[in-house]
Design brief:
This protein has about 210 residues and is an alpha/beta fold. The protein has six helices and nine strands, in the order E-H-E-H-E-H-E-H-E-H-E-E-H-E-E. The strands form two sheets. A seven-stranded mixed β-sheet has the order 3-2-1-4-5-6-7. The longest helix has 24 residues. The chain is globular, with a radius of gyration of 17 Å. It binds 5-O-phosphono-beta-D-ribofuranosylamine. 5-O-phosphono-beta-D-ribofuranosylamine (GRF) binds next to helix 1, strand 5 and helix 6.
């Protein structure tokens, strides 16, 4: 995997940790950031993973990013809190190979501040989504989602923290499914093989007796 990250990098860490387990079928080989001081780069350094900062204001930013990824023979590009919209020329250079994690149940609440949007909308369930990246903002084919209840006294911070815990679970899981060949995206449709679905699973929030 190559990971693109702009900030604290907790999802990156979840992918690094998963990749260090002997039975996990993928490993983080490269971390790229558009922010020189991002903690994501520090995490990569601590883990001994190749990493670079690329300056977004410099010409050819996405070209350089793509070249680094190709040089490292990366199979899967994971956006993990990468705060930029990938341009069409970058997305089309790596068809079906870029995934992202978003802190809502897409297609609800795409874009920034997804947790606040969920609170403002008064939903009782929100969550997180891993999806393939297309040219839109958080619009690509959905791979995995986790539903997370909104609790009565939640604010943006408490809800974000609860969702984040699930992000750290489903991102490595999505990578595992892709690396094992249990998930494919064909013409914008995600196809599963194996035991991805469980009859009768689900939950109701708020819970009533
Ligand atoms: C996560 O909530 C992710 O879903 C969103 O940005 C946040 C990044 O957090 N895209 P971290 O940098 O992985 O800790």
């Amino acid at each position: 995997m190559g990971v693109l990250a702009s900030g604290r990098g907790s999802n990156l860490q979840a992918l690094i940790d998963a990749g260090q387990k002997s039975d996990f079928p993928a490993e983080v080989e490269l971390v790229l950031s558009d922010k020189r001081n991002s903690y994501a780069l520090e995490r990569a350094s601590i883990a001994g993973i190749r990493h670079s900062h690329l300056a977004p204001k410099e010409e050819g930013f996405y070209l350089k990013m793509g070249d680094e990824i190709e040089n490292c023979e990366i199979d899967l590009i994971c956006c993990a809190g990468f705060m930029r919209i990938l341009p069409p020329e970058f997305v089309s250079r790596f068809p079906g190979k870029i995934i992202n994690i978003h802190p809502s149940l897409l297609p609800s609440f795409p874009g920034l501040h997804a947790q606040k949007k969920a609170l403002d909308a008064g939903v009782t369930v929100t969550g997180c989504t891993v999806h393939y990246v297309d040219e839109g903002v958080d619009t690509g084919p959905i791979i995995l989602q986790a539903a997370v209840p909104v609790l009565p006294h939640d604010d943006e911070e408490t809800l974000s923290a609860r969702i984040l815990g699930y992000e750290h679970r489903i991102y490595p899981l999505a990578v595992r499914l892709i690396a094992e060949g249990s998930v494919h995206c064909v013409d914008g449709v995600v196809l599963y093989s194996g035991n991805a679905h469980q009859e009768g699973s689900g939950f109701i929030s708020p819970v009533s007796e």
